[in-house]
User: What shape does this take?
Amino acid sequence: MEESKIINRRVVIIGGSAGSLNALLLILPELPVFKSFALVIVLHRRGTDDLTLESLIQLKSVAPVKIIEDKVEITNGFIYVAPSNYHLLFEKDNIFALDTSEKVNYSRPSIDVSFESAAEVYGTNLIGILLSGSNTDGTEGLKAIQKAGGIVVIQDPKSAEMPFMPSNALLHIKPDYILSNDDILKFIISLDK
Amino acid sequence: MIEDIELETLVNDIYEYYGFDFGSYSRASLKRRVNRIYQLDGFKNFYEFLSKVRYDSDYYKRLIDEITVNVTEMFRDPTFYKVVRTQILPLLATKPFIRLWHAGCSTGEEVYSMAIMLKEAGLLHKSLIYATDINSKVLETAKKGIFPLRMMKEYSENYRDSGGLEDFSNYYIANYGIAKFSEELAEKMVFSQHNLVSDTSFNEFDFILCRNVLIYFDNDLQKRVIKLFDESLATLGFLALGTKETIKYSISTTKYKQLEKEKIWRKVK
Assistant: This one.
């Protein structure tokens, strides 16, 4: 495997469900262009959705959005959005992989699936952030990120539109940070050094 | 959870004992699928699992069924079907006989979707749809044309979004939780086992569909499969892949012309 490619690669992965898009639409316009990591967003979305979510995120973001397709390389400085109706996985040689297998937590993409796969590849170079939602998805994934030595951030349920998902995660893990929306933005900016 | 090195041992053993080659499968997905069945079947350690696979051929069959992804749906990605309906079928209609190949057809939902569209275009009588998969079990389901009734609401919405104007329920008979599709649709289907990893071309086709199969293969195997499709496709025939798949890393794109934004290419020379 091409380990050297992974070493200087950092990934920030954000998972969210109901209410999380609004949080992201507050964060992304304020987030300046970044260089030292790739930002991957995994949201529960409609199965027949085309590229409307990607277009919306591009419209609201300063940083560039790259469309995920089979075997697209993960490059620092870009925002990536998990496509609808696929699970998003990560290969050891720093490319995305897609999978149409069964829904997990009633979802495809599932946050757990992407978080677990990213944890395996990026280990201590991974930062996982779980946002608002009314589903239990994400908790197992955050556990995997923590176990692999990555950093775990959970949106403060008080600042989440739908507090169930972050609250459920907090019942099962002790994150590195519990942050409000504004602080999540500051935290991501602070990572770009 | 199994380790990377254990996965490679399993891949080697499956090849050695059964001749099936997972060596060129994308590892992220394969590992997740193997871990899933490993946990589902409650093995205590990897070697217990490995010897079960080696010496119990029935268990090996179960393993293949479980690690190959067989999730599919009717009219998956309705906009794709709309383009097929409005742009491709009218072009194929001029031919005296239309040969189609669904490679990796799984339980057949997309094959029946195609048959419905061919019928509505008045082309089914002069069409033949070859539908293949590596997994013999899913082909048995596909042949029967029996799908879960609970899926029909979603499928009829997909059908309508694809430009379908009929009452979707006219195509099946509902009974005890199942939907049995009209045998008229199945008359023009031929199902057979075919392995894209190792088998060769078996006919010439006007339209080849292979949607969401290549995502499970590495670049080298993708190249092999695209070459196989190229050899099996008539000039001016069409090749359709999944919405996130491409031929551009596998074959000279001067030979193929893409239909706008769709993952459909026409062989132009």
User: Anything to note?
Assistant: The first strand of chain B starts at residue 98 and ends at 103. The beta strands of chain B are 98-103, 127-133, 146-148, 172-175, 178-181, 189-193, 205-210, 233-241, 256-258, 264-267.
